[in-house]
Amino acid sequence: WRSTQPHYDNLGEALLALFEVATLEGWPALMYAAMDVTEDRHAHPQRNATPAHALFYVIFVVMGSFFVMNIFVGVVVHKFQMAKERTDGASIFLTEQQRGFVDRVKVLLDAGRPKRLRVPRGDCRRAVFYVVVSEGFELAVIAAIVLNMGAISLNHYDQAKAWDDADLGLNLFFTVVFLLELVLKWVGLGPRQYFADPWNRFDAFIVLTSLVDNASEFMATFYHIPLLNAMNLSLFRIFRLARVVKLVNVNPGLKTLLQSLIV
Protein backbone atom coordinates (compact mmCIF):
# COMPACT_ATOMS: atom_id res chain seq x y z
CA TRP A 1 0.00 0.00 0.00
CA ARG A 2 1.04 3.62 -0.50
CA SER A 3 0.43 6.81 1.43
CA THR A 4 -2.39 9.05 0.26
CA GLN A 5 -1.59 12.23 -1.61
CA PRO A 6 -1.03 14.59 0.05
CA HIS A 7 0.20 13.07 3.30
CA TYR A 8 2.02 14.11 6.48
CA ASP A 9 5.31 12.26 6.00
CA ASN A 10 7.24 15.51 5.48
CA LEU A 11 6.75 19.22 6.07
CA GLY A 12 6.02 20.14 2.46
CA GLU A 13 3.33 17.49 1.99
CA ALA A 14 1.85 18.34 5.39
CA LEU A 15 1.55 22.04 4.51
CA LEU A 16 -0.03 21.12 1.19
CA ALA A 17 -2.53 18.87 2.96
CA LEU A 18 -3.47 21.60 5.45
CA PHE A 19 -3.81 24.10 2.62
CA GLU A 20 -6.26 21.81 0.83
CA VAL A 21 -8.26 21.45 4.04
CA ALA A 22 -8.28 25.22 4.59
CA THR A 23 -9.58 25.83 1.07
CA LEU A 24 -12.24 23.09 1.54
CA GLU A 25 -10.97 21.38 -1.62
CA GLY A 26 -11.51 17.66 -1.13
CA TRP A 27 -10.90 17.79 2.62
CA PRO A 28 -13.36 14.94 3.46
CA ALA A 29 -11.14 12.49 1.54
CA LEU A 30 -8.15 13.51 3.68
CA MET A 31 -10.24 13.19 6.83
CA TYR A 32 -11.42 9.70 5.91
CA ALA A 33 -7.84 8.65 5.13
CA ALA A 34 -6.72 9.93 8.55
CA MET A 35 -9.53 7.99 10.22
CA ASP A 36 -8.19 4.79 8.63
CA VAL A 37 -4.71 5.20 10.12
CA THR A 38 -3.84 2.45 12.64
CA GLU A 39 -1.80 2.69 15.84
CA ASP A 40 1.13 1.11 14.03
CA ARG A 41 2.13 3.68 11.43
CA HIS A 42 3.82 0.99 9.33
CA ALA A 43 0.65 -1.15 9.09
CA HIS A 44 -1.82 -0.85 6.25
CA PRO A 45 -4.91 1.33 6.80
CA GLN A 46 -8.05 -0.13 8.30
CA ARG A 47 -11.50 1.33 7.87
CA ASN A 48 -12.37 3.69 10.78
CA ALA A 49 -9.43 2.48 12.85
CA THR A 50 -9.06 5.88 14.58
CA PRO A 51 -12.25 7.90 14.15
CA ALA A 52 -11.04 10.47 16.69
CA HIS A 53 -8.73 11.89 13.99
CA ALA A 54 -11.79 13.44 12.38
CA LEU A 55 -12.02 15.89 15.28
CA PHE A 56 -8.78 17.56 14.17
CA TYR A 57 -10.16 18.20 10.68
CA VAL A 58 -13.45 19.57 11.98
CA ILE A 59 -11.65 22.00 14.29
CA PHE A 60 -9.19 22.98 11.56
CA VAL A 61 -11.99 23.66 9.07
CA VAL A 62 -13.92 25.78 11.57
CA MET A 63 -10.88 27.75 12.75
CA GLY A 64 -8.68 27.71 9.66
CA SER A 65 -11.22 28.08 6.88
CA PHE A 66 -14.13 29.94 8.42
CA PHE A 67 -12.08 32.40 10.46
CA VAL A 68 -8.40 32.63 9.50
CA MET A 69 -8.97 32.49 5.73
CA ASN A 70 -11.71 35.10 5.98
CA ILE A 71 -9.45 37.36 8.02
CA PHE A 72 -6.71 36.92 5.39
CA VAL A 73 -9.10 37.77 2.57
CA GLY A 74 -10.42 40.74 4.55
CA VAL A 75 -6.92 42.15 5.01
CA VAL A 76 -6.18 41.76 1.28
CA VAL A 77 -9.45 43.50 0.34
CA HIS A 78 -8.80 46.28 2.86
CA LYS A 79 -5.31 46.91 1.49
CA PHE A 80 -6.68 46.90 -2.04
CA GLN A 81 -9.33 49.48 -1.12
CA MET A 82 -6.69 51.68 0.51
CA ALA A 83 -4.53 51.51 -2.62
CA LYS A 84 -7.57 52.27 -4.76
CA GLU A 85 -8.42 55.34 -2.66
CA ARG A 86 -4.87 56.63 -3.10
CA THR A 87 -5.41 56.49 -6.86
CA ASP A 88 -8.67 58.49 -6.67
CA GLY A 89 -10.88 55.42 -7.03
CA ALA A 90 -9.22 54.09 -10.18
CA SER A 91 -7.85 50.59 -10.49
CA ILE A 92 -4.20 50.30 -9.50
CA PHE A 93 -3.65 47.82 -12.34
CA LEU A 94 -4.61 50.28 -15.13
CA THR A 95 -2.38 52.66 -17.01
CA GLU A 96 -3.30 56.31 -17.48
CA GLN A 97 -4.68 55.63 -20.97
CA GLN A 98 -6.73 52.70 -19.67
CA ARG A 99 -8.12 54.79 -16.81
CA GLY A 100 -9.16 57.45 -19.29
CA PHE A 101 -10.94 54.83 -21.38
CA VAL A 102 -12.79 53.47 -18.31
CA ASP A 103 -13.84 57.00 -17.35
CA ARG A 104 -15.21 57.67 -20.85
CA VAL A 105 -17.14 54.38 -20.78
CA LYS A 106 -18.65 55.30 -17.42
CA VAL A 107 -19.73 58.68 -18.79
CA LEU A 108 -21.37 57.02 -21.80
CA LEU A 109 -23.15 54.47 -19.60
CA ASP A 110 -24.42 57.15 -17.25
CA ALA A 111 -25.56 59.24 -20.19
CA GLY A 112 -27.63 56.30 -21.45
CA ARG A 113 -29.66 56.19 -18.26
CA PRO A 114 -32.37 58.81 -17.75
CA LYS A 115 -31.50 60.99 -14.78
CA ARG A 116 -35.07 62.11 -14.21
CA LEU A 117 -38.16 60.45 -15.61
CA ARG A 118 -40.64 62.65 -17.41
CA VAL A 119 -44.22 62.45 -16.21
CA PRO A 120 -46.66 61.81 -19.10
CA ARG A 121 -49.44 64.29 -19.80
CA GLY A 122 -52.51 62.06 -20.01
CA ASP A 123 -54.38 61.40 -16.77
CA CYS A 124 -54.46 57.64 -17.36
CA ARG A 125 -50.78 57.38 -18.27
CA ARG A 126 -49.85 59.66 -15.37
CA ALA A 127 -51.67 57.36 -12.93
CA VAL A 128 -49.90 54.32 -14.37
CA PHE A 129 -46.58 56.19 -14.23
CA TYR A 130 -46.86 56.83 -10.50
CA VAL A 131 -47.75 53.17 -9.96
CA VAL A 132 -44.75 51.73 -11.83
CA VAL A 133 -42.23 54.08 -10.20
CA SER A 134 -43.55 53.43 -6.68
CA GLU A 135 -41.65 51.34 -4.17
CA GLY A 136 -44.62 49.04 -3.65
CA PHE A 137 -44.69 48.10 -7.33
CA GLU A 138 -40.96 47.31 -7.24
CA LEU A 139 -41.38 45.18 -4.13
CA ALA A 140 -44.26 43.30 -5.76
CA VAL A 141 -42.08 42.54 -8.79
CA ILE A 142 -39.25 41.33 -6.54
CA ALA A 143 -41.69 39.09 -4.66
CA ALA A 144 -42.91 37.65 -7.97
CA ILE A 145 -39.30 36.93 -8.99
CA VAL A 146 -38.59 35.12 -5.72
CA LEU A 147 -41.77 33.07 -5.98
CA ASN A 148 -40.99 32.24 -9.61
CA MET A 149 -37.52 31.02 -8.67
CA GLY A 150 -39.08 28.91 -5.92
CA ALA A 151 -41.54 27.36 -8.37
CA ILE A 152 -38.74 26.55 -10.84
CA SER A 153 -36.66 24.95 -8.09
CA LEU A 154 -39.47 22.49 -7.29
CA ASN A 155 -38.99 20.65 -10.58
CA HIS A 156 -37.49 17.21 -10.09
CA TYR A 157 -36.65 14.08 -12.02
CA ASP A 158 -39.44 11.63 -12.87
CA GLN A 159 -42.16 13.86 -11.46
CA ALA A 160 -45.83 12.94 -11.80
CA LYS A 161 -48.05 14.26 -14.59
CA ALA A 162 -50.02 16.34 -12.08
CA TRP A 163 -46.77 18.04 -11.12
CA ASP A 164 -46.00 18.71 -14.80
CA ASP A 165 -49.43 20.31 -15.24
CA ALA A 166 -48.92 22.43 -12.12
CA ASP A 167 -45.50 23.50 -13.36
CA LEU A 168 -46.98 24.48 -16.71
CA GLY A 169 -49.70 26.50 -14.99
CA LEU A 170 -47.28 28.28 -12.67
CA ASN A 171 -44.94 29.05 -15.54
CA LEU A 172 -47.81 30.55 -17.52
CA PHE A 173 -49.02 32.52 -14.47
CA PHE A 174 -45.63 34.15 -13.83
CA THR A 175 -45.16 34.87 -17.52
CA VAL A 176 -48.47 36.76 -17.50
CA VAL A 177 -47.39 38.62 -14.35
CA PHE A 178 -44.12 39.78 -15.90
CA LEU A 179 -45.84 40.56 -19.20
CA LEU A 180 -48.27 42.75 -17.25
CA GLU A 181 -45.29 44.49 -15.63
CA LEU A 182 -43.84 45.17 -19.09
CA VAL A 183 -47.14 46.57 -20.41
CA LEU A 184 -47.66 48.83 -17.38
CA LYS A 185 -44.13 50.21 -17.60
CA TRP A 186 -44.52 50.69 -21.36
CA VAL A 187 -47.72 52.66 -20.85
CA GLY A 188 -46.51 54.64 -17.86
CA LEU A 189 -43.00 55.46 -19.04
CA GLY A 190 -43.46 55.46 -22.77
CA PRO A 191 -41.34 53.48 -25.27
CA ARG A 192 -38.37 55.89 -25.25
CA GLN A 193 -38.02 56.08 -21.46
CA TYR A 194 -38.72 52.37 -21.10
CA PHE A 195 -35.95 51.23 -23.42
CA ALA A 196 -33.53 53.87 -22.11
CA ASP A 197 -33.15 51.76 -18.96
CA PRO A 198 -30.92 48.65 -19.49
CA TRP A 199 -32.90 46.75 -16.86
CA ASN A 200 -36.11 47.26 -18.82
CA ARG A 201 -34.45 45.99 -22.00
CA PHE A 202 -33.31 42.97 -20.02
CA ASP A 203 -36.88 42.41 -18.75
CA ALA A 204 -38.29 42.65 -22.27
CA PHE A 205 -35.83 40.03 -23.52
CA ILE A 206 -36.69 37.64 -20.67
CA VAL A 207 -40.43 38.10 -21.23
CA LEU A 208 -40.01 37.42 -24.95
CA THR A 209 -38.08 34.20 -24.31
CA SER A 210 -40.65 33.16 -21.68
CA LEU A 211 -43.45 33.60 -24.21
CA VAL A 212 -41.60 31.39 -26.71
CA ASP A 213 -40.96 28.83 -23.95
CA ASN A 214 -44.64 28.81 -22.91
CA ALA A 215 -45.87 28.53 -26.49
CA SER A 216 -43.57 25.60 -27.20
CA GLU A 217 -44.47 23.82 -23.98
CA PHE A 218 -48.20 24.40 -24.53
CA MET A 219 -48.11 23.04 -28.09
CA ALA A 220 -46.05 20.02 -27.04
CA THR A 221 -48.30 19.20 -24.07
CA PHE A 222 -51.77 19.61 -25.54
CA TYR A 223 -51.24 19.19 -29.29
CA HIS A 224 -48.07 17.06 -29.29
CA ILE A 225 -46.41 19.48 -31.69
CA PRO A 226 -42.84 20.18 -30.49
CA LEU A 227 -41.89 23.67 -31.68
CA LEU A 228 -38.43 23.41 -30.09
CA ASN A 229 -36.13 20.50 -29.42
CA ALA A 230 -35.08 19.62 -25.89
CA MET A 231 -31.79 21.53 -26.07
CA ASN A 232 -33.38 24.79 -27.24
CA LEU A 233 -36.20 24.43 -24.70
CA SER A 234 -33.66 24.05 -21.88
CA LEU A 235 -31.87 27.16 -23.15
CA PHE A 236 -35.06 29.22 -22.92
CA ARG A 237 -35.65 27.94 -19.38
CA ILE A 238 -32.16 29.10 -18.43
CA PHE A 239 -33.19 32.57 -19.60
CA ARG A 240 -36.09 32.41 -17.15
CA LEU A 241 -33.61 31.82 -14.33
CA ALA A 242 -31.66 34.89 -15.45
CA ARG A 243 -34.49 37.04 -14.10
CA VAL A 244 -32.99 36.61 -10.62
CA VAL A 245 -30.23 39.02 -11.73
CA LYS A 246 -32.75 41.81 -11.18
CA LEU A 247 -32.34 41.28 -7.45
CA VAL A 248 -28.90 42.85 -7.80
CA ASN A 249 -30.55 46.15 -8.65
CA VAL A 250 -32.33 46.33 -5.28
CA ASN A 251 -29.56 44.87 -3.11
CA PRO A 252 -26.85 47.44 -2.30
CA GLY A 253 -24.32 44.76 -1.33
CA LEU A 254 -24.75 42.76 -4.53
CA LYS A 255 -24.74 45.95 -6.60
CA THR A 256 -21.46 47.07 -5.02
CA LEU A 257 -19.91 43.66 -5.67
CA LEU A 258 -21.03 43.71 -9.31
CA GLN A 259 -19.71 47.24 -9.81
CA SER A 260 -16.39 46.22 -8.27
CA LEU A 261 -16.09 43.32 -10.71
CA ILE A 262 -16.91 45.58 -13.67
CA VAL A 263 -14.51 48.34 -12.64
Descriptive overview:
There is one protein chain. The chain has about 260 residues and is mainly alpha-helical. The chain has two domains: about 10-85; about 125-260, Four Helix Bundle (Hemerythrin (Met), subunit A), CATH 1.20.120.350. Helix content is about 70%, strand content about 0%. It is built from eleven helices and no strands. Helix 9 (about 200-220) runs antiparallel to helix 10. The mean pLDDT is about 80.
Write the layout of secondary structure elements.
Blueprint: H1 11-22, H2 27-35, H3 53-86, H4 96-111, H5 123-132, H6 135-153, H7 161-189, H8 191-196, H9 198-222, H10 230-241, H11 252-262
Helix pairs in contact: 5-7, 6-7, 7-9, 9-10
| Highest CATH level, the class of the largest domain | Mainly Alpha
The shape is flat
Query: Which CATH architecture of the largest domain is right?
Result: Up-down Bundle
| Approximate strand percentage | under 5%
Q: In whole angstroms, how far apart are the ends?
A: 52 Å
> Biggest sheet, open or closed, and with what strands and sense?
none
Structural class: mainly alpha
Multimerization state: single chain
SSE sequence, one letter per element: HHHHHHHHHHH
